[in-house]
Amino acid sequence: MATSSERSPPPFPDSEDQDVLDAEEVRGRDSDEDEDLFGMTEMDTTPTSDVSMKPPSDIMNDPLIEPMIKADVTVEATIDRSEVTAGVIDPLSQQEAKQTSTAPVIDLSGDSQPVTSKIADPLVALFSDAPPAAEAKKPSSANVDLFDDEEGSDIFAEPLQTKPAKQPQKSLFGEPDEDVFGEPLGAISKKPVPKDKPADIFSQAAASTPSVTSTVNPKTNGVHSEEDGDIFAEATVELSLDSPRNERKKEATAKPSAPAPTSLPAAASLAKPQPPALEEVRDGMNAYMAYKVSTQTTLPMFRNKTFTVRRRFSDFLGLYEKLSEKHGPNGFIVPPPPEKSLLGMTKVKVGKEDSSSTDFVERRRGALERYLQRVVNHPSLLQDPDVREFLEREELPRAVSTQALSGAGFLKMINKATDAVSKMTIKMNESDVWFEEKLQEVESADQQFRKLHALVESLVVHRKELSLNTASFAKSAAMLGSAEDNTALSRALSQLAEVEDKMEQLHQEQAASDTFTFAEMIADYIRLLVGFFPHRKCEFCDLQGSFDHRMKAWQRWQDAQSMLQKKRETEAKLLWANKPDKLQLAKEEIAEWEAKVTQYERDFERVSATVRKEVIRFEREKTKNCKRQVITYLECLLQSQQQLIKYWEAFLPEAKAIA
Amino acid sequence: MSTEEVKETASVLSVHDDSIKVTEVLKEGDTLTFIIVSQKLSGTGEYHVDRTYEDFEWLQQHLFSQGDVPGIQGVIFPPLPAKPQVNASPRSIKQLGFLALGECQPYCKALETFLQQVAAHSILSKNKAVEVFLTSSDPPGRQKVKKNIFNRLSQAVEEMRKEGHKDVDEFFQNERDHNLILTGCTKTAAEKFLDVVATEQKIAVACGHFSTALHLCVEPGEDPDKQAFSRVCVKLSEVFESIKKNMTSVAENNVNTLGLGLDLESRYQEAEREMLFRRTCKLVELENAQRNVEKAKPVKKAAMEEVKKAAETEFEHTSGVAKQEIARFQGARVEMLQQALVGWCEKQLLTAKESADQFNQHLEVFRGMA
After folding, report:
1. Counting one residue from A and one from B, how many pairs have CB atoms under 8 Å apart?
2. How far B119 CA lies from chain A's nearest CA (Å)?
3. Cβ-based contacts of A466 with chain B (< 8 Å)
4. Which of B14, B189, B209, B305 holds its CA 20 to 30 A away from the CA of B226?
5. From A519, which residue of chain B is nearest by alpha-carbon distance?
């Protein structure tokens, strides 16, 4: 923030227009509008309101995002950038915001993407364009600076080079963070108010909302606030796709210091939603939350390298429906999305900004992100046109069926199906030992994971309690400090209160880390293994689901066999009764059923093989994922211990100074 | 040992005050017996005595009731912790606060502090009862102790009336006001801190459970995938074991340093408050006597005058001692709190460093896993 406040005010819009026009077509489009817009409003006030509203949300979000995003650093940086950019552009593009704003997001995250994989070419292009413009318009230089700094060094260089281990630290203690967010945000707010005191606005980017708005044209402010919500407030899914096939190419070009992308060939990361930032679309009675899904990819099957779409929760369910319909019967494990939660969602809709609804939204965002990551990580599912459409297509036809099915009706239906399947299970005498064992394993694993989940949840509850208690101890220590006569002791006690306040933060972060690394990871497994609750068993097509599909295939085969048997008996009867006219027909039928039996048998074997492969893949992924999570967790833990050490070391001389 | 025997003699204590240690506690049925060890002033050798809580009460009663020492009412008596319960009810646990935690160590520490404070006190250490308590092999206080006016309960009733009485001395008025605020603040702080510790202990337990449960995830079999997963689980279990250890020692550090410090401070503030209250009572007594003198008929005037004189002397003595005591107390408590804070900080620092080391090792192991 400090740095940004020192910068001179850039009339960003102008410079941007020019740069961007050169730089890229899409952007150019959008910047045209900027010009118009600014022509009308005299460029200053209009966007400010938006901007000033926006930064707080972003800022608040940052700490949240980082600890839990499992995608690599690069992806994260991208998120930040793209968001920032969105912030820059949206206010400018006003009503068309959707169209135009998404475009810039794409551009910029596109730029950042190369940094991770191919590095920087477009970046250079984009920004090398900027300086001339800057010269033309003097103040815009700051703007250029800004980009250079952040992109070149701060965001990308740093996160990339530092190991992933460092990443949580940043989010916690935030120097790079501040740079990243503070500056771009500052830039945003600066740009619109080029004349008077941008420095002020800047330095307070987050806090300044009221003051800025007061200087701002209130009408436009009103106009914007809506759009605002739409765009920024969005829960963003960032999905970066680097297909396994491109991995090789990437490895060749990319720095080895970005190990995450390779281990995570397709990274879908959902950038955080936060209550203020949450996109809530209120359309009469139907309020809903939209998630921004941003994808980066080098796969040729996509039209662009990066793109962003908005999806609502039911779209995610719809995707799942389609996928499980298509791939489930073949024995694929289609990753299940998180459940609908009427309670959680209602709370959010009602607009209660208490911690539980924030928590809910964050958990859901994380779950959706992991869900998408699982989908795109699956080699077969990634090829599905529906997946592509989901990621790429601007407007998705509303998933009517899910809407109808979601909630109780959906569950009931599924449960019925499950019942039927489980009845079948009893009949099926398993011939394959491997499957029998696996099924048992899955069942016991489910129980274990449930137990673990309950334990982690209770741990999280305690952590939260600790943070609350620490806060109230800090308060009472401060009181004690102020009541104390002895100056040195009083001072030390106040310091103690501060230390405890900081520790409260640490505890809070630790609770979040517990939640998002372990609780959510385990919840995912449970979801994958079986449905969330016993009565919803098999709510989604998952591991057990794929076993079920195999059983269905088996059943079909068996039915066909018995049908064939019957036909043969009929033939025998006919032979005996000596009815040659019908005999011919019976023979044909037998031939038909023989073909079917072979076909079904083959089907069954194919499904079995797929299930087998899938289960093995699942287990391998599970271990890998688990390890990754643990490493993240440990890094976080280590970080907070190191921070504690710092706090104690700072406090010790204070304590010793009491005389 | 009867009361009279002890009362007459004032003696010099024959042990080093700072050598007094409560080394052990023995549980027999419902009674707890504390072993107290102290070093002889004369040459080498130690006294080992065993005392129950009743003995401590006996000692305290003797200290309270030294009628012959002028100004004894002005002494801030070292506070004796509340009676420990073997099978503590939630209420008594709440009353004991930090001292109810752990395996009696905090409680022993508090008793030890009490004895050291008594032995180091210039007025109290002269009482024969202290010597007897620390050195006599016979338990002194096994008979029922008669509660005297220092009984907290009876005091509570009187307090209502007299605590608000305006003081004639500005110093004492200030001290009383300040003491009132500090007592409240310290008590709250100690309670809040206790909450923190309690939660830390819960977290430690939860981590332990999680760590144990992780072992259940270990799958048997030759399958390399399974083995890999099992390895992750086992390692993770170790990680949580470390987290548990870390939390446990953080909680212990909290109790043994700042926790005990705040607890002692809180009880000492109470003790000061009691002393100030006793002095206020004397003041009320004196003022009543003065009024009586004014109102008295000539016949009784002389007698009244005498009563007033006596009250005056006593009040002056009390105030004199009280002033010294307060000065001493202020110094002592700052030092005590400083030690508590420094000790706390150092211990937590050590724990944090150890834990960071351990986490780092775990991290390396995980990174090293193929």
Report:
1. 150
2. 24
3. 196, 199-200, 203
4. B209
5. B210
Q: Name which of B193, B225, B356 is nearest A620 (Cβ-Cβ).
A: B225
Residue A309 parent element (H or E): strand A306-312
In eight-state DSSP terms, residue B187 is H
pLDDT at B65 over 70: yes
CA distance B176 to chain A (A): 13
d(CA B287, CA B290): 5
Fold for A288-397, please state it: PX Domain (3.30.1520)
Eight-class DSSP state of A277: T
Spatial distance between the Cα atoms of B208 and B237, rounded to a whole number of angstroms: 9
Determine whether B344 is exposed, middle or buried from the number of CB atoms within 10 Å of its CB (0-12, 13-18, 19+). Answer: buried
A449: closest chain B residue by CA: B217
Distance to chain B for A355, nearest Cα, Å = 20
- The whole-model pTM stands at 0.64
Burial B121-160 (b: 16+ CB within 10 A, else e): bebbbbbbbbbbbbbeeebbbeeebeeeebeeeeeeeebe
- Do residue B366 and residue A634 have CB atoms under 8 angstroms apart? yes
* CA–CA min distance A494, chain B (Å): 12
Asked if B253 and B348 touch (Cβ cutoff 8 Å), the reply is yes
Which run of H or E residues covers position B32? strand B31-39
Mutation pick from A462, A501, A513, A628 vs chain B, by most beta carbons of B within 10 Å, is A462
Minimal Cβ distance to A473: which of B192, B214, B355: B192
ipTM (interface pTM): 0.86
**Sequential DSSP letters for A62-122:** HHHHHHH--S-HHHHHHHHHHHHHHHHHHHHHGGGHHHHHHHHHHHHHHHHHHHHTT-SHH
Residue of A nearest to B337 (CA): A489
Q: Minimal Cα distance from A647: which residue of B?
A: B349
Instruction: State CA A639 to chain mean position distance.
Output: 24
Report the chain A residue with the minimal C-alpha distance to residue B265.
A480
Q: Select the residue of A470, A472, A631 nearest B366 (Cβ to Cβ).
A: A631
Cβ atoms of B143 and B57 closer than 8 Å: no
Domain spanning A430-658, CATH class: mainly alpha
Structure tokens at B321: 């001692």
Of B98, B103, B119, give the one whose Cα is nearest residue B344.
B98
Q: What is the dihedral of CA B130, B131, B133, B137, to 10 degrees?
A: 180
Flag if A641 and B232 touch (Cβ within 8 Å). Answer: no
pLDDT-based confidence at A292, cuts 50/70/90?
confident
Q: Which of A30, A123, A128, A25 is nearest to A74 (CA)?
A: A123
Note whether A288-397 and A430-658 share their fold: no
Q: How far apart are CA A378 and CA A380, in angstroms?
A: 6
Distances (CA, A) of A252 to A109, A137, A240, A260, A306: 21, 40, 19, 15, 21
Domain map (residue ranges) of chain A: 288-397, 430-658
pLDDT in tens, A550-602: 777 778 888 888 888 888 888 888 888 877 778 888 888 888 888 888 888 88
Extended strands (E) in A384-463: none
Nearest in space to A512 (alpha carbons), one of A622, A636, A370: A636
> In which region does residue A174 sit, left (phi positive, over 0), alpha (psi from -120 to 50) or beta (all else)?
left
d(CA B204, CA B243): 7
Cβ <8 Å between A466 and B232: no
pLDDT 10s digits, B208-220: 999 998 887 777 7
